[in-house]
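User: Can you help me understand a structure? I only have the sequence.
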Amino acid sequence: MSSLALNPIQIFSQGAEEEKAETARLSSFVGAIAIGDLVKSTLGPKGMDKILQSGEGIQVTNDGATILKSIGVDLPAAKVLVDISKVQDDEVGDGTTSVVVFACELLKEAEQLISQKIHPQTIISGWRLATDEARKALTEFARDHGKDEKKFKKDLMNIARTTLSSKILTQYKDHFSNLCVDAVLRLKGSGNLDAIQLIKILGGGLQDSYLDEGFLLEKKIGVGQPKRLENCKILVANTPMDSDKIKIFGSKVKVDAVSKVAELELAEKEKMKDKVNKICKVGCNVFINRQLIYNYPEQLFSDNGVMSIEHADFEGVERLALVTGGEICSTFDAPDLIKLGHCDLIEEIMIGEDKLIKFSGVKLGEACTIILRGATKQILDEADRSIHDALCVLTQTVKETKTVFGGGSSEMLMADAVSRLAARTPGKEAVAMEAYAKALRQLPSIMIDNAGYDTAQLISELRACHTQKKHTMGINMDEGKVDDMEVNGITESFQVKRQVIMSGSEAAEMILRVDDIVKAAPRPRGRDDRHC
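Assistant: Let's start by predicting it. Here is the structure, written out as tokens:
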């Protein structure tokens, strides 16, 4: 026997690990399927919520992207699914749970096909044909009312209701659908969500939330300054206004009398006075600063009849500059280059027990604020996420005006198209296509499971309807029966559905291609590393 057989050669560094072939594929499948099983109970209008506990506190949510972002995963395949939920959230704002569950169901089907000795490349080939057929069927069936303003607004309302049905706001979905549609239609097709501000204020109930025109800033007006000002010229700045105290950095100053310290302080005051005078010469009557404004400069602003607002958070300052048409500046030596913002009225208002500053008649006419009220911080946070999802979906629909029907009808339509293609296709690809169709049918099945209805009965009824070309039929989740989605107004964005199918298929294909997992050796910590 050769010495090599007795002493196998070590190729990788000590500490590195390798999983090959079936072991690698199995561990990828197990990890990905575990992630899918984690979030699938949140799918659909009757989905359950999860409590996420971390060092920052607790979150109660059923948003797939939020759940997956908050949990730490170590398995590479699981990270792929976490990433696709994030991409889905960034691209279209909704469908984050659907995309993960769809990829997970595809992998469950692939696991069975591989156990039947069908090669992964054959499965991938069948899936690609199935994806094209599903997308084609979805595109052909999509409705487009973009040219008819009245019908399109009705579509938007239905989409908002459907999106909010699976969220915490489902009880007041009509109220919040109106808020979201009004806010998005104000954007006039620009899709600039920065113009829509969400403010969360504790107290009241969710039904007390409302839409307000203009812009609200969660700050207070300076002491001794007017609480209401008309025809405002606003200077938005990010500059230090805190030189009441001596700050000579990196230097030591020795004085032989306390009077010398007073002279230094006086010099600092003179510098601040010059700075305030430069700001006033710009011609503004409102000064809003990202940083603190100390007592002395605030007093100088009051003397010059300028309203000053300090410590506006950076996102607030950026948004304010956008909606008032100004620019953020930090130096004031060239008044001609400074662009001031404008609005008709600034006033201090109270919502609940909080004081806010309201900017009315801003230059960016589409700017508006949704004020969310709620009993606890967790409810407000989840309401914020729900509204954000609805706004994202609506802005996507305004750009891509096609719509499809929900309640599982779109998935069954695509599954039916893929099954018919599989019946016409010779070879092993047909088996992969059938598996793809089965994975699509699992999405409405899981929704029905989560509601506690009879899955086998409803899915068989629904499948029979779609085989008879009744493609508007879906599941009425309130009554637990097969119903016409067009009549019930259960509408979804075409863009969201298409993205779910494309992203889910790509992620499952990527995981299925894996036949080797190599974990690099951890970097050794030397004695010098401890001092880094």
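Now, to help you interpret it: The chain has 17 helices and 18 strands. Residues 3-144+405-519 form a domain with the GROEL; domain 1 fold (CATH 1.10.560.10). Let me know which part you'd like to focus on.
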